[in-house]
Each structure stands twice: as C-alpha cells, then as structure tokens.
Amino acid sequence: MGTTPGDRGRFPGFDIMGQAAHWDSRTRELVERRLGPPPAPRFFTRDEEAVCRPLLDLLLAQEREPKVPVFEMIDDRLA
C-alpha cells in the first residue's frame, strides 16, 4: 500500500495501486517508478549526495520513511 511521506495520510487505508487498472500506461509507469527503488545519481557525486540528502531531509522536516524523493528530483533535473 502506498503511504504518504512522514506517514501522515489524509485517507487512512487507501491504496493508490488499487486504482492502477483505471490509469493509462504513462500514468502507471510514472507511479510505479516513484514507488520503486531510487535511481543512482547522475549529476551529483556520492560525496555530494552524502551531504545533500541529509540537508534536504532537515530543511523539509522529513524525519521518517517514506520520504519525498527530493534529492532524486533535483539530480534528475540537473542531469
């Protein structure tokens, strides 16, 4: 079941993947990619990632899993 970042769901018990049969192929691909493992960084080095990821978590108050993949979004945009 998909859970919101910080485990603060607005709709307890709702499973987003239960709706997959109603999506087009592009939507399904995007949602499944976001729920899967994060890709390896393409822009940042591993040393930069080690600093950037905790800084983003601190700035965005992401204390627990699941977290919004902000680092991956930034890395993808910059790559």
Commentary on this structure:
The chain has 79 residues and is mainly α. 43% of the residues lie in helices and 0% in strands. The longest helix is centred in the middle third of the chain and has 14 residues, at 46-59. The termini are far apart. The mean pLDDT is 86.
Helix coverage percent of residues? 40-55%
What is the CA-based Rg, rounded? 14 Å
Number of helices: 3
Strand content: under 5%
Low confidence ranges: none
Element order: H for helix, E for strand: HHH
Structural class: mainly alpha
Major β-sheet, in short? none
List its salient traits.
single chain; 79 residues; mainly alpha; 3 helices; 0% strand
Structure, briefly:
This protein is mainly α and 79 residues long.
Topology:
Elements: H1 25-35, H2 46-59, H3 70-78
